[in-house]
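Query structure, 147 tokens:
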């Protein structure tokens, strides 16, 4: 079910361009992180303060139909803004992996489950391990499941 409301594109031009191209092509184009060749997915959520619709590309970390959303922000000391959107609206999220978006619910994982998903994330995108070394915060991991 579409998330209703005003869409506000990312302030980052490359993110705006990637989301637009990905959606226009049904995931056939702009489906990798820049020139890495590594696949991405797009998730849609509602801004925790603005209430506006937001779309974010993240690395594709999929296992048995579930997806990890890794709030790495490149190893910055703070979480990405979208982290707070997921906390505020965990049941009002869509994910697109290919042609059609679908509803998901997310939950932040911890303990052994986080360790398992973190390993999957690092396998899909090895730079996550470097990002964790750059920051003192434990990088949050969410698991998105079809609603």
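Result returned for the query:
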């Amino acid at each position: 079910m579409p998330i209703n409301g005003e869409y506000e594109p990312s302030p980052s031009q490359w993110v705006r361009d990637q989301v637009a191209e990905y959606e226009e092509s049904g995931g056939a184009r702009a489906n990798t992180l820049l020139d890495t060749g590594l696949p991405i997915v797009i998730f849609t959520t509602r801004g925790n303060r603005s209430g506006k619709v937001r779309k974010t590309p993240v690395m594709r970390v999929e296992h048995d139909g579930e997806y990890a959303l890794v709030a790495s922000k490149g190893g910055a000391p703070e979480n990405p803004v979208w982290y707070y959107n997921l906390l505020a609206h965990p049941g009002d999220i869509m994910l697109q992996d290919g042609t059609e978006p679908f509803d998901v619910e997310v939950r932040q994982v911890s303990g052994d489950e986080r360790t398992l998903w973190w390993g999957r994330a690092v396998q899909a995108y090895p730079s996550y391990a470097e990002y964790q070394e750059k920051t003192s915060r434990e990088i949050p991991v969410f698991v998105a499941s079809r609603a």
